[in-house]
Amino acid sequence: MSEIKINCSSGHVADISDLRESQGDLAVLTAAARDKLKAALIEHGICAPFAVWWDGETKNLLDGHARLRVLKDLRGDGYSIPFVPVSYVSAVNREQAMRILLSLRSDFHVTSVDGLNGFLQSMDIDVGSIEDTVNFHGIDLNFLDGEDTPGTDQPEALPKLPKKCPECGCIIG
């Protein structure tokens, strides 16, 4: 049986069965994005802890919903999923926890075509080697590979900034 690797550390771990999704239908995970995330988890493992608010009874997920869903799919496909790293987020009540969830879920950044292309070139990363494991909203990776021309949906914006845990400052996502 194949196992999804843990490639980060955290002071706490949890079984994915114990993590409760708390965002409802706030975000949609398309089939294409699910497939890319599945491939990324198989290739890279879990590289960031899940953000969790413990209300005394339930481990409420604040960040990592898509990863949780895909890990459950992978478990159903026969993959072994070890306990996953979690970072506990402090909140005085459910309302504050859900406000934190919204903050973590917000898109404060947009990847630009030029920025992504420059990064890939500077790191000598071939677009074809990552197209099955990454998803940049509004960017056609075929364009970066020279196969198409850019469309109007190619954003010009600031580079992506990592999400940080409001409690300890560690990178999450």
Word description of this protein:
23% of the residues are buried. Strands 1-5-3-4-2 form a 5-stranded mixed β-sheet. Strands 6-7 form a two-stranded antiparallel ribbon. It contains 6 helices and 7 strands. It starts with 11 loop residues before the first strand and ends with a strand. A hairpin with a 6-residue loop joins strand 6 and strand 7 (171-172). The chain is of the alpha/beta class and 173 residues long. It folds into 2 domains: 12-106 and 163-172, Conserved hypothetical protein from pyrococcus furiosus pfu- 392566-001, ParB domain; 110-157, no CATH class.
Q: Give the termini separation.
A: 27 Å
Please tell me how large the radius of gyration is.
17 Å
- Write out the strand line-up for the largest beta sheet, numbering strands in chain order: 1-5-3-4-2
Helix content: 25-40%
CATH architecture field of the largest domain: Alpha-Beta Complex
| Biggest sheet record | 5 strands, mixed
Strand segment tally? 7
What top-tier CATH class of the largest domain fits best?
Answer: Alpha Beta
Mean pLDDT: 86
Strand-pairing-aware structural class = alpha/beta
Dominant shape = globular
Number of helices: 6
CATH domain fold name of the largest domain: Conserved hypothetical protein from pyrococcus furiosus pfu- 392566-001, ParB domain
Topology:
Layout: E1 12-14, E2 19-20, H1 31-44, E3 50-54, E4 59-63, H2 65-76, E5 84-88, H3 94-105, H4 113-122, H5 127-130, H6 141-144, E6 163-164, E7 171-172
Parallel strand pairs: 2-4, 3-5
Antiparallel strand pairs: 1-5, 3-4, 6-7
